[in-house]
Amino acid sequence: MLSELWNENIMSKEEKTIEKLKKELLQLGPMLPGSISEQYNVCGKAGCKCKRLKEPIKHGPYYQLSFTLAGKSSSLFINKNDLSQAYQMVKNLKQFKQLTIELIKANVACVRKNGLKGDKND
Ligand SMILES: [Zn+2]
């Protein structure tokens, strides 16, 4: 393709890395912060198996996503059927953070090598 040829000739290695990382960032699916844990609960029902003195069996597992966002801690429960999707979304955010760091590094490397170009239309 013509545009790829153009990129090949004009873009530096660092600029190509930046474009590649931006594309990868755009391709990431939906994200969730935090981590997922298993919870076991005790209910309020009298005589329930979860409350007996000998070998109580708690209810669960329930799956809870816990996270801190902008300094505020929060959590939400995840339906067992949605668990693999939720794990994937948590993974996507980790990938997003990793790519963001790589993108910033690539930008620094680009400026270090090529300097700041100012307004190209001048
Ligand atoms: Zn119970």
Describe the structure.
This protein is α+β, with helices and mostly antiparallel strands and 122 residues long. 46% of the residues lie in helices and 20% in strands. The chain contains three helices and three strands; from the N terminus they run ααβββα. It has a three-stranded antiparallel β-sheet, covered by helices on one side. Helix 2 runs antiparallel to helix 3 (83-114). The chain binds zinc ion (ZN). Residues 43, 45, 48, 50, 59 line the site of zinc ion.
How confident overall, as mean pLDDT?
A: 90
Number of helical stretches of at least 4 residues? 3
Radius of gyration: 24 Å
Taking pLDDT < 50 over at least 5 consecutive residues as the criterion, the unreliable ranges are none
As a percent range, the share of strand residues is: 15-25%
List each distinct ligand once.
Answer: zinc ion
Q: Strand count, sense and closure of the main sheet? A: 3 strands, antiparallel
Range of helix content: 40-55%
- Which descriptor suits the 3D outline? rod-shaped
Number of domains: 1
The H/E string reads: HHEEEH
